[in-house]
Amino acid sequence: VAFVVCRSLEGLKTFSYLEELILDNNLLGNDLLLPRLPHLHTLMLNKNQISFQRNTCKILLDHLAEAVPSLQYLSLLGNMACPNELVCKEKDEDDYQRYRYFVLHKLSNLKFLDARKVTRREREEALVRGAFMKVVKPK
Fold first, then answer.
1. What b/e sequence results for 2-12 when a residue is b if at least 16 CB atoms lie within 10 Å of its CB, and e otherwise?
2. Sign of the CA dihedral 114, 118, 121, 126?
3. pLDDT tens digit string along 49-94?
4. Which pTM does this prediction carry?
5. Which domains does the chain have, with CATH numbers?
6. CB 10 within 8 A of CB 33
7. Contact between 104 and 118 (Cβ < 8 Å)
8. Alpha carbon distance 120, 125 (integer Å)
9. What angle do CA 44, 53, 123 make, to 5 degrees?
10. Which of 11, 29, 63, 78 has the fewest beta carbons closer than 10 A?
11. Is 126 helix (H, G, I), strand (E, B) or coil?
């Protein structure tokens, strides 16, 4: 038995007016490709395989910024990219906050990230320091 893993969701391009998309628990990784969905405002990618490996999460966030320009609600809970106790016991609130600054730096239109409202202070901090907040593990 052979399995073909497809990370592209190009078939969604026929749903150009799609506003909400829930892709939880689908083994999706950083190579996820969405077609341009200009009306999509809510994207749930909880419990997939998205991580901060070798700059690939930056590439995914850049892709989301381009493919879903109206995105306001994003959830990445349960992924390695989202550093919290659900994924890794060694992570703490500071790690999670750095992750939030980095994601908000890339996706500045977000109103909610994960289950938490984006604050004015977070938005300001993301503008100033977000590019430097990528959470990485030393080798």
1. eeeeeeebeeb
2. positive
3. 998 776 778 899 999 999 999 999 999 999 988 887 666 677 778 8
4. 0.84
5. 10-132 (3.80.10)
6. yes
7. yes
8. 9
9. 55
10. 11
11. helix
Structural tokens at position 132:
């430097």
CB 9 within 8 A of CB 34: yes
25-36 confidence digits (pLDDT tens): 999 998 899 999
Residue with tokens 């703490």: 92
Residue 75 tokens read as 């959830």
Q: Give the integer Cα–Cα distance in Å for 11 and 55.
A: 26
- Cα–Cα separations (whole angstroms), residue 112 to 5, 7, 124: 30, 25, 15
The secondary structure of the chain in percent helix, strand, coil, rounded to multiples of 5, reads: 35, 10, 55
* Rg value, the chain, Cα: 15
